[in-house]
């Protein structure tokens, strides 16, 4: 129970500064969005549901292609930004609710979730996914994983953390573990969809991209991770100050490599 409460608190920290999160986080590759829609093959007028829509980093990409989307977002602060981003898009509906208890009024042809499925209660998430999908409906789960291109800079920034007695938060840009850690049938998401989810036709696809971050831009990205948001303000600010200084001394920018990991499956009829 303590772990569940901690996870719930971590999930809610993103809304503390929803605008900052929206500015800091990159979107998703166009090819990924197109592949999801090709896989789902939604008949005309059949809607998609987005779980944990946040501020709409994925929502706008699907909506721009004409897909009717119902966004389920548990944090009212994030949903407020999401609604502002979707102004003028009548085919996008936003509902403030936990997916675990949300009750849809129609079946959906596609359930997709960007960067948030791990926050949904594992005890019920697959049963809830089956309940909202029409027979043969598609599931698309995807995450962005970040790495610094310069390993030497990564070592320097890790040393900055150590100087303040802070561990690098897991699943962040400096986490040394390979991401995505599992691929294809070895991945946890694949195994869950097959065993717990009752889904079939699983696929796993990866997309690579890269961009440059200024010192302030890198700090904005770090600040968007729950592990950093959960730190007390004073040590976090000191850490970020020294991280920015290290990037400035290293040439003034940091190359960031992004691996977008997509899992696809179809509900059994």
Helix content: 25-40%
Specify the overall morphology.
globular
Spatial separation of the terminal alpha carbons: 35 Å
Name the poorly predicted regions: 1-11
Query: Given the structure, what is the number of helices?
Result: 11
Strand order of the largest sheet: 3-2-1-4-5-7-6
Rg over CA atoms: 19 Å
Number of strands: 7
Percent strand equals 15-25%
The overall pLDDT, averaged over residues, is 90
Structural class: alpha/beta
InterPro entries: Diverse_substrate_MTase, Methyltransf_25, rRNA_Ade_methylase_Trfase_N, SAM-dependent_MTases_sf
Keywords: Methyltransferase, S-adenosyl-L-methionine, Transferase
Region (Disordered): 1-25
Protein name: Class I SAM-dependent methyltransferase
Question: Tags for this entry?
Answer:
seven-stranded mixed β-sheet; alpha/beta; S-adenosyl-L-methionine; globular; disordered N terminus; Class I SAM-dependent methyltransferase; rRNA_Ade_methylase_Trfase_N; transferase; 269 residues
Would you kindly provide a brief summary of this structure?
By secondary structure, this protein is α/β, with parallel strands linked by helices. It contains eleven helices and seven strands.
How would you describe this structure to a colleague?
Helix 2 packs across helix 9 and helix 7 runs antiparallel to helix 11. With 269 residues, this protein is α/β, with parallel strands linked by helices. Strands 3-2-1-4-5-7-6 form a 7-stranded mixed sheet, with helices on both faces. It is built from 11 helices and 7 strands.
């Amino acid at each position: 129970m303590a772990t569940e409460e901690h996870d719930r608190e971590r999930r809610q920290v993103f809304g503390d500064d929803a605008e900052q999160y929206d500015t800091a986080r990159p979107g998703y590759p166009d090819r990924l969005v197109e592949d999801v829609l090709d896989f789902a093959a939604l008949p005309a007028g059949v809607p998609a549901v987005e779980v944990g829509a946040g501020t709409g980093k994925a929502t706008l990409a699907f909506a721009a292609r004409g897909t009717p989307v119902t966004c389920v977002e548990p944090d009212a602060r994030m949903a407020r930004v999401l609604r502002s981003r979707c102004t003028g898009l009548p085919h996008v509906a936003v509902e403030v609710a936990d997916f675990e208890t949300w009750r849809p009024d129609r079946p959906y042809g596609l359930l997709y979730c960007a960067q948030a499925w791990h926050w949904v209660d594992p005890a019920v998430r697959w049963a809830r996914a089956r309940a909202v999908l029409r027979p043969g409906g598609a599931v698309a789960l995807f995450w962005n994983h970040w790495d610094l291109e310069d390993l030497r800079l990564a070592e320097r920034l890790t040393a900055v953390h150590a100087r303040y007695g802070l561990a690098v938060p897991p699943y962040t840009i400096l986490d040394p573990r390979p991401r995505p850690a599992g691929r294809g049938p070895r991945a946890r998401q694949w195994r869950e969809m097959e065993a717990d989810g009752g889904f079939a036709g699983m696929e796993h696809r990866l997309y690579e991209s890269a961009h440059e971050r200024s010192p302030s831009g890198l700090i904005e990205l770090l600040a968007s991770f729950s592990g950093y948001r959960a730190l007390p303000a004073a040590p976090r600010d000191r850490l970020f100050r020294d991280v920015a200084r290290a990037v400035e001394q290293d040439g003034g920018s940091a190359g960031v490599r992004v691996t977008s990991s997509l899992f696809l499956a179809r509900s059994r009829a």
